[in-house]
Amino acid sequence: MTDDTASSSPFARIPGAVVDERGLAHVAAPTREQRDLIAGRALAPLDDRVVLAVDGVDRLTWLDSITSQALAALAPGVSTELLVLDPQGHVEHAASVVDDGERTWLIVDRSHADALLTWLTRMRFRLRVELHDLSDRMAVIGGTGDAVAALPALAVWRDPWPEVGVGGWGYAPATPHPGTAYDWSEAVVTVDTAADIAAAAASGSQAVAGWMAVDAVRVAAWRPRADTEADGRALPHEADWLRSAVHLDKGCYRGQETVAKVHNLGHPPRRLVSLQLDGSDARLPERGAEVFFGEDAVGAVTSVARHHEEGPIALAYVKRTTPTDAELTVAVDGGVVAAAQEVIVPPDAGRTAAVPRMPRLSRRR
User: Fold this and answer.
1) Sheet holding 138-143, edge to edge
2) What is the β-pairing status of strands 270-277 and 290-293?
3) Three-class DSSP category at 56
């Protein structure tokens, strides 16, 4: 979304609203907005999401053949997500997926939408599929499942995170996973419906939350996104994305060889960590800020937020060899802040690390 469209957003008319290039950032109270969002009282306009639609009888088998997810037998109303990988297995795009029996709806990050649509268009060949960019006619509204259920939606996607889907694999050792209580859905609505929600918010009859609150809830649940954790060289293993976006036992697709090799025979070169940042400093690091172990740079921040309970938090990629108990620091304007890491992807992540090994017998025996 350009700066011009951001300033013309219907949500900009809400008293106290701050709107930027991502859309509604907050309505003067990001902390309260988080609480309202979690409680199901608030709706979040997701102007940084774009809606694409795929029609045609071959749509599901086609998407199955070119992406990481098994979609050929996807039942109507079932939500999942897919990744588009490059030939080396790096994440290029991600999409939230739900099919209604006649049309497959894709919700994608706006920063990736044009490139993904172009790539999909090139991959149609002679198949019976039609692609539609609905960004001018449709909007995406987020919130808890109950919060979006009352909307006149054309489609609703329920985020499967952090469930381990059929054919998926979870790396995070935390029990329970911090995303267990993560209740998130995204509704595809018309732009007129979005304008009605904005009008209700302006009159005080509907609570809304900006992207700052949405990000805080997402980061606390360790939930990766394409426009943040897909940094150009990310493997899905590094962000624990195999659990919800990859089917390890499906047919061939671009990048599958790397996915299988890293999971079955090796370990990802980097690992995503959750960082609890020193809250005594009001400064927050920027996305891309370096992460240090001592004086050595070992990674970079991908997402950062200020959570209403946990305080300043972040997601970051670090080298696989970084000790899990290492005391880290993160660069901020004019210095560094201390950061305590919580393991999302362990250093030995992979199928081999999860399979019990038999004791090795000596040659003499």
Assistant:
1) 155-158, 185-190, 138-143, 42-45, 207-208
2) unpaired
3) coil
